[in-house]
UniProtKB/TrEMBL annotation:
It comes from the Bacteria. This is DoxX-like family protein. Keywords: Membrane, Transmembrane, Transmembrane helix. The chain crosses the membrane at residues 29-50, 81-104, 125-147, 167-194, 201-221, 227-248, 276-296. The keyword ATP-binding does not apply.
Length: 452
């Protein structure tokens, strides 16, 4: 352990920074148990974390490669996706920490003398762990990568066909006046404040206020990050607890509060390692921020990056739907007929009809699949497509076995003709007509709009 020395003035009011054995061995053992427990929750001990971290990709360095390093959720035992059972791993970690704390309590005969150093060490670990998470997610909100503006297909999906988390994401994604970016900025500021020992209490306070909202949103909308959000809130609370006596004296009793007198003294070697660690940490997030901005500015993340048909993006009405030579009229109950089709600016085509949709039930995630658009949507069938001359192949994003090969013709920019020789054992002819639609979200809320 790095060598520290403590400068503590005797005779002054006692604070939490001095080891005062108020409750004897109970306080000593409680600190040791809490120290080991938080350490077990903080250290990445999940093998899946390392398998995911070192998975091989064909493309170059991406912001997600760095994000994976920061995105670790405390894991012990079997993970449960929802409910209080998701926190059973914390109980297992506490049980594992119990014998370790007992051994530490028995063997460390100079714990009272080393208490300030142990307290400083655990605060440094928690500060940097919390700051890492806040900076990582803060940049994803500052450059709207985690919660993007809804796609055209999602604007044409019924409200009740979304999973709760997708409704929350859309509400945040369409917010005006830079609300999402402001949240990201606040998280970044709190993360930076946590890096400084003198400003850590301010950063922890801002982080706690922000994370309370995050925790409530996770439980209310099933965002899937409830374990991580509660863990980060726990870290912020522990960091705040350190300064509670001083804050109480200053803000409640309005009396003079004693400053923290502990001054860590590092050896020459530890000073060098400390400087290099700070440089590495700074470079890591500088590169991360640049890559995140690049993905937002030029790569359309988290939507697919491959371009779609030229000048074809838009909302299409299905004018003709002819199967085996028989035209099916427009119907709200026919499970075969398509009702409308959306072509995105990228290579995604979505179909709305009465046919039951097999939705992607996965929660929100920053992943290489870039399937955010079809996650949590039970109202449309999403297909990625590739073109070769006049041929277009559609592959269902939720069910790769569902693929359709069409012959594509475009008599004009507003009409698309699709012909398939094999559509679930039938022949199919479809005519799509582009609709000239005006979206109020695109016009803006403060501009005059004429509906009729």
């Amino acid at each position: 352990m790095t060598q520290f020395t403590a400068s503590i003035t005797q005779g002054e009011n006692r604070t939490i920074t001095e080891f005062q054995l108020h409750d004897g061995l109970r306080y000593r053992f409680g600190f040791q148990l809490g120290f080991v427990w938080l350490l077990l929750l903080t250290l990445p001990l999940d093998p899946f974390y390392y398998r995911q971290l070192f998975s091989v990709r064909d493309s170059g360095l991406h912001f997600q490669d760095l994000f994976r390093i920061t995105d670790y959720t405390p894991f012990w035992g079997q993970y449960h996706a929802w409910g209080l059972a998701a926190f059973t791993g914390w109980l297992w970690a506490l049980l594992a920490a119990l014998p370790l704390a007992i051994v530490w309590n028995r063997l460390d005969k100079k714990f009272e003398a080393h208490y300030p150093q142990w307290l400083y060490a655990v605060r440094v670990i928690l500060r940097y762990r919390l700051a890492t998470a806040l900076l990582a997610y803060g940049f994803l909100l500052l450059f709207p990568l985690q919660v993007p503006f809804p796609s055209l297909s999602e604007l044409h999906t019924k409200y009740g066909d979304f999973l709760p988390w997708k409704i929350y994401y859309h509400s945040l994604g369409v917010s005006s006046t830079g609300y999402e970016c402001t949240l990201g900025f606040i998280e970044i500021v709190s993360g930076l404040l946590l890096l400084g020992r003198r400003t850590a209490v301010v950063g922890a306070g801002i982080a706690a206020a922000t994370l309370i909202n995050v925790v409530l949103a996770n439980f209310a909308y099933d965002l899937g990050q409830h374990v991580l959000s509660v863990y980060l809130l726990l870290l912020a609370a522990v960091l705040l607890l350190y300064d509670v006596p001083r804050l109480y004296q200053l803000l409640v009793k309005e009396t003079r509060a004693r400053a923290d007198r502990f001054v860590p003294a590092f050896t020459d070697r530890s000073i060098i390692w400390r400087r290099w660690a700070k440089v590495a940490f700074t470079l890591f997030f500088l590169v991360y921020a640049v890559l995140a901005y690049s993905s937002y500015h030029s790569d359309r993340w988290p939507y697919p990056g491959k371009p779609g048909l030229a000048k074809a993006a838009g909302f299409y009405n299905v004018r003709h739907f002819v199967i085996d030579g028989q035209e099916l009229p427009y119907s709200l109950t026919d499970t075969l007929r398509w009702q409308n089709v959306v072509l995105e600016q990228w290579n995604t085509l979505s179909i709305h009809g009465v046919q039951r949709v097999r939705p992607n039930l996965q929660g929100p995630a920053i992943d290489y699949q870039r399937d955010y658009e079809n996650q949590g949507n039970g109202g449309r069938r999403f297909y990625s497509y590739t073109t070769s001359g006049e041929d277009i192949l559609l592959v269902n994003k939720n069910d790769p076995a569902d693929s359709i090969a069409f012959r594509l013709q475009r008599p004009n920019e507003a009409t698309i003709l699709l012909d398939a020789a094999r559509y679930h054992g039938h022949t199919l002819h479809v005519q799509l007509d582009l609709q000239d639609k005006t979206y109020l979200l695109h016009l803006g809320r403060r501009k005059p709009v004429t509906v009729f």
